Amino acid sequence: MSTLRSVAVVVGSLRKASFNRKMAHALMDLAPPTLAMSIVEIGDLPLYNQDLETESPPAPWQAFRNAIRAADAVLFVTPEYNRSIPGVLKNAIDVGSRPPVRNVWTAKPGAVISVTSGALGAFGANHALRQALVAVNVATMPHPEAYIANAASLFDETGKLVSDGTRDFLVKFLTAFEKWVERNAASAQTS
């Protein structure tokens, strides 16, 4: 039996009713019992500024870093803004990676799901995020890739996932992620 692993879910959209937040909740509902998933909020993080990197950095930075550090793995759910990731998500990656000797992302197993109401599944954001994660040493699951398109048709008025096909895909994705986390979490703890 697999070990219970904590997963920090980082949502790249700040809008409370965003499709990405709805997707994050759907993923948390569908997660296997070995993955304890919870959203780590990024909306109150001050912009990264090295001048603030003192013995007492901003409290939101410290709380965020502690939450990511405590997690066994990270799942990113992102929209696409201008063929890339939202600035708030890039800021969260930067806050967690500084200073480099205390990078909270190092060797954590991770995965990316991009969600959009458009037809391309936020392909650009998915790959831009993967590129940033390489730089901060997140062991990002290569397959299956998850590009969720036409998100407006996937949820009911209460925010619940109503697409059986998407639900089936997400279960397969989470099963693969569970295996990825189990395989890679041990190396993250020794880093």
Overview of the structural elements:
Helix content is 39%, strand content 16%. With 191 residues, it is of the alpha/beta class. Strands 1, 2, 3, 4, 5 and 6 form a 6-stranded parallel β-sheet that branches. β1 (5-11), α1 (19-30) and β2 form a beta-alpha-beta unit. The longest helix has 27 residues, at 164-190. The chain starts with a strand and ends with a helix.
Main attributes?
16% strand, six-stranded parallel sheet, alpha/beta, Rossmann fold, 191 residues
- Strand portion: 15-25%
Q: Give me the number of helical elements.
A: 5
Mean of pLDDT? 94
CATH superfamily: Flavodoxin domain
User: What fold name stands as the CATH topology?
Assistant: Rossmann fold
First-to-last CA distance: 24 Å
- What is the 3D form? globular
Helical/strand content category: alpha/beta
> How many strands in all?
6
Largest sheet: 6 strands, parallel
Query: What is the string of SSEs from the N terminus onward?
Result: EHEHEHEHEEH
CATH architecture: 3-Layer(aba) Sandwich
How many separate domains? 1
